[in-house]
Amino acid sequence: MEIDINLNSLDEALGKYNKEELSDDFDSYLIAHCAFLSFKNNLLVLNIKGLPKKNWKKLDDIIHSYYLNKLNRYNKIDDIESYIRIGFFIIGILAILISELFTSFLSELFLIAAWVIVWELVYDLLFKEIKRRRKAKIYKYLANAKIVFIK
Fold it and tell me: What is the pLDDT of residues 8-36, one digit of tens each?
């Protein structure tokens, strides 16, 4: 895959407050262009116009380390969210069981609350999980891609 980039200096690709990270604009641009990749090859071609050749290696290193760090943080957050989902699932099941103990308004209240919780978890697993996996795949691709610079 080839991505066309116009950079006059390395500073345009780097963060305003941290020169060891990519800027939000550059990050969004790369992710948007990788959104529809098949990830069959591990080659990323950057057509960079205006950036001096001496800065190519530094940009390559920053891209790899930035997305590796981003992937690691994303995986940690996803692990924490998995524990939260399991906790909510248990709460939902317990609420269903508690609703069986009552025969009045409380029974209906617990039953509705439980099914809302369980439905949200099912929705999250069926629809949001696909987006989370795709995002992690893009980060992994950018962290490990062999970057070829073409001027």
Answer: 888 888 988 888 889 999 899 888 888 87
